[in-house]
Specification:
Blueprint: E1 8-13, E2 18-23, H1 29-37, E3 41-43, E4 48-52, H2 55-64, H3 74-89
Antiparallel strand pairs: 1-2, 2-4, 3-4
């Protein structure tokens, strides 16, 4: 059974360009459902919840866990720009306005 007192820590992982959520104890089922609903997956090896970074998920997980939302990490913004340019120059980027 989960603990209501499980304290979450949300952090950006520059190594994986992802968001990691770590709890001090096993959270209650409602909190687990929130993480799953926002697209986070459990890593038994690292003992944390994770997902690829995007600004919406960064804000959503903070809001859902009742944490203040810090600014988006600069490393995350740089990675998003690199991803955009890789896709654009590889011919994989499709501008939604042109659809």
């Amino acid at each position: 059974m989960g603990s209501i007192l499980a304290v979450p820590t949300v952090r950006y992982s520059a190594d994986h360009n992802g968001i990691e959520v770590v709890f001090t104890d096993r959270p209650d089922q409602n909190t687990l459902n929130i993480c799953k609903g926002l697209g986070f997956k459990w890593s038994p090896r690292a003992k944390l919840w994770y997902r690829r970074f995007n600004p919406y998920s960064w804000a959503s997980i903070h809001e859902a866990l009742n944490l203040p939302t810090p600014p988006i990490p600069q490393a995350a913004l740089r990675e998003q720009v690199r991803d955009y340019h890789r896709a654009r120059y590889a011919g994989e980027y499709r501008d939604p306005a042109m659809a």
